Amino acid sequence: MLSNSKSLALVLVLVASLGVARAAHGDATWYNPGQGACGATSSSNDLVVALSSSAYAGGAHCFNHITVYYQGKKTDATVVDECPGCKPGDLDLSPGAFSALESLGAGRIQVDWEFA
């Protein structure tokens, strides 16, 4: 019985280390970046993202990278801004990052994302 408990504990540690809890799902829209809440100035071609206020966490994730997944495509983006109007899990991507996943005309897409 003790070996089963140790095996279970090992499995739980391994599952926790996979980072599954860091994955999120939400809507992605696009915006024209400029001076972001992190203090950097970005252009439309830069692969940058604004996180919801809850994910932005007062700037704790400034300049961290995320990977965004959409219908078999993915792109990486750097956190440079906060999106106060976004719901938890939602993202506001630069045109460069959004267009790596879908045409800007789509306007809003459902994505999965995680910190890289």
From TrEMBL:
Transmembrane segments: none
Residues annotated as domain RlpA-like protein double-psi beta-barrel: 24-112
Keywords: Signal
Residues spanning the signal sequence: 1-23
One Pfam family cited in the UniProt record for this chain: DPBB_1
UniProt entry tagged with the keyword Signal: yes
Keyword Signal: yes
Entry protein name: RlpA-like protein double-psi beta-barrel domain-containing protein
